[in-house]
Amino acid sequence: MRAAVLQEIGQEKLEVLDDVEAVGFGPGRVRIRVRATGLCHSDLSAMSGVLPQPGPFVPGHEGAGEILEVGDGVTHLKAGDRVVVCWLPACGACPACKRGQTELCLAGFMNAGTPNFRRPGGDVFGFAGTGTFAEEVVVDAGCAVPIPDDVPFDIAALIGCGVTTGLGAALNTADVEAGSSVAVIGCGGVGISAIQGARLKGAAEIVAVDPVASRRESALRFGATKAVSPDELADAKQQVTAGEGFDYVFEVVGKSATARTAYDNTRRGGTLVVVGAGAMDDFLQLNMFELFFDEKRILPSMYGGGDVLRSYERTIALWRAGRIDLEGLITHRVPLTEINEALDQMRTGTALRTCIEI
Fold first, then answer.
1. Is 15 left (phi over 0), alpha (psi -120 to 50) or beta?
2. Which residue among 16, 153, 311, 322 is least crowded, i.e. fewest CB within 10 A of its CB?
3. Whole-structure pTM over 0.90, yes or no?
4. By the 8 A CB rule, do 259 and 284 touch?
5. Nearest of 162, 188, 158, 184 to residue 345 by alpha carbon
6. Vertex 213, ends 163 and 175: CA angle to 5°?
7. Residues 121-132: tens digit of each pLDDT
């Protein structure tokens, strides 16, 4: 079987190998033929070591495909079913699930410590317990979520992570108020999805902030009312809010420097939503006086901050109704053999989302 493998954390290139085997099939598990997968910035972060992930590993966690085989005890799926891969399945029994905070369930993270693949040289892990840069993957049945026949695999793949994360940050975590002012710092696929969510909620002003001109242009097509470079943010804050600051600021980069910028551009009493996944040794510094005096809400948003399955269903309904644009997020397409080209597109910011066709 063919898969893209990172041999050592810190390497910038993936090796596309033909000697990889998907392992772990058995009771409660399913085998999936991956048809499409998106490249998410979290994959790059895992490759560089920003996000913890044992290696060697197959990146990819934003995928969709068809069920090839189901293990004993799996009753809600059958061979031939079309599914989206959910890298953060809810167990339904832990304290977080019982509270209704299924996005905080740790069951999916436990999967990351079990190898999903094997090569003649030894075990290979799958990123986030999945590893969708492969022709096949074996995962827990809860990681395979059925999708309707009218949802293309490339669209379903996006729903598996980036769209759910960005859209949910605006709809669930922030619950953006109609008529409000919004700034989104970082306008890749997740940031653009946050922009679409803010537009859906009726935000009056949405300022997109990104250093890449093509991404700023894209943001305007997806609902931003203004798009600026980071150097122009101060002027936009003055023009849009008379210097007071935005009602909501979304940080979609995952770095303390941009989180600090986001905090500084949030009005007193406003809301900073932290969407980007950052490093454990990158610390955001706030002094205790400003934290008290400004009364700004700081809301981290994990995987869209809501029930994942309900979020998938809502996203499909909005897409069907023409309320959100998912096709437009896919700016590039490459076969698995050209996966390193997709990595370059992500690193340079030329792509919103690259679809890897498998």
1. beta
2. 322
3. yes
4. yes
5. 188
6. 35
7. 899 999 999 999
